[in-house]
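Justification of computing resources. Each target in the renewal requires a structure prediction run like the one illustrated here; the chain below, 120 residues long, is used simply to show the kind of job we budget for.
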Amino acid sequence: MRSASIEKEMVATLLRHIRREAEAEDRAVLVAAFRKQVSRALEEARWSFADHFCDKILVEDARNLEAWLVKGHLAWRRFNEPLKALSCFRQVLILGAYDSSNACVARARSSLQQLLEQLS
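Resulting structure tokens:
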């Protein structure tokens, strides 16, 4: 009896693990598709669409530094929303653990400095 119970528990654990992996793969596919849409929107100067697809990326992956960085630049350079830009750039720094060896963090740090200089 005990062996069957342990076996059922192991199977249930494996199934949960497989489902989580499948969900992660699905999210990765969605994020990749949304990144293509962001790139396309930026190339076509469709700023609102780029921002919209960054939001979609962040729904799937709230820690996506690139999406936060793009949102910051859009808020600053295209939508004239400096406070929103500051928030986005800070989010990149926090999520990236202030690690300037990360390209997104380095760009966010530089952009944040420029924006603060512009505002003062």
